[in-house]
Amino acid sequence: MTVSNPPESKQRTSKRLKWLEPFALLFPSGFWLVSFLLVPTIFIFIQSLVPLGKTEFGIDNYLRVFEYVGGNFIYLTVVWRSLLYAVITTGFCLILGFPVAYWLAVIAPKRWRNILLLLFVLPLWTSSLLRSYAWITILRPTGVLNTFLNFIGLSGINVLNKAEGVIIGMVYTYLPYMVLVLYTSLERLDLRLLEAAADLGANSKQTFWQITVPQVSSGIIAGTALVSISSFSDYINPQLLGGPGSRTIASIIELQFLGASSNRGFGSAISMVLILAVTIVIALLIKYGDRRVVSDS
Fold first, then answer.
1. Could you say which of 47, 98, 132, 174 would form a disulfide bridge with 240 (CB–CB 3.0 to 4.6 Å)?
2. Collapsing DSSP states into helix, strand and coil, what is residue 157?
3. What global pTM score does this model have?
4. Domain span at residue 127?
5. Do 139 and 58 form a contact (C-beta atoms < 8 A)?
6. pLDDT tens string 194-209
7. Which residue ranges does UniProt annotate as crossing the membrane (predicted)?
8. Beta strands 68-69 and 72-73: pairing type?
9. What is the pLDDT of residues 258-286, one digit of tens each?
10. How many domains does the chain have?
11. Is residue 138 a part of any domain in this protein?
């Protein structure tokens, strides 16, 4: 008994369908990204090329970002302030979050780790707007913090409507994200290497910098990128906890779209600057983060 081969046309159809399988798998996520990310970004870019009161395309809106008035680069100062807030927030989140993540992943009893981690990230279940209003209640001159300081005999402090208040709110907002990312890396920490380093005479400082940090460097990079991107584009904390001198790039974009003297073209140009900055950070993360992971493994 001989088994006949399938017709050649069916073989070609089968190969063609197999070739289309990757596209079919990518279609749902690809359609979502194109529809709600790529297309809106293209519209924003096109709108950024149309100066206010004109119909022809140009780069006047982008040149306005470098506007120099009264001895000061108005909008570059705002961009620099946003970047400075992001750097300071990321630094504090890393310094404060690493010991917490290390304790949760290595020192805390295993049966309590999930519960402790849940309790730490529980504030994320609350609206960021409500959390910022809570900090207003704490930091205002007659708030909880100053009331407590006066009760123990210390003079009150005034950080509301200042850069310090913005930093406090941003660190509180993004610290859980840093802890979560670092926790996932520290959970895979090879404790045998730490024991071997101790047996070979390494002190705690040498063990930390030469054994622990290289193993979790990918988590440090990912957490730093996540917090820096989020804090750079933060709107709520600078708007509620900062004063007029604490405006960030997100506040300027909001004013250009919804303010009394709105200029959607210029707002779109600033939005494209923000998108470009975020894209650069993500590209650096993909390039050097993956390289770091490969070298560590």
1. 132
2. coil
3. 0.83
4. 70-296
5. no
6. 888 888 888 888 888 8
7. 20-46, 83-104, 116-136, 167-186, 265-286
8. antiparallel
9. 877 788 889 999 999 888 888 888 887 77
10. 1
11. yes
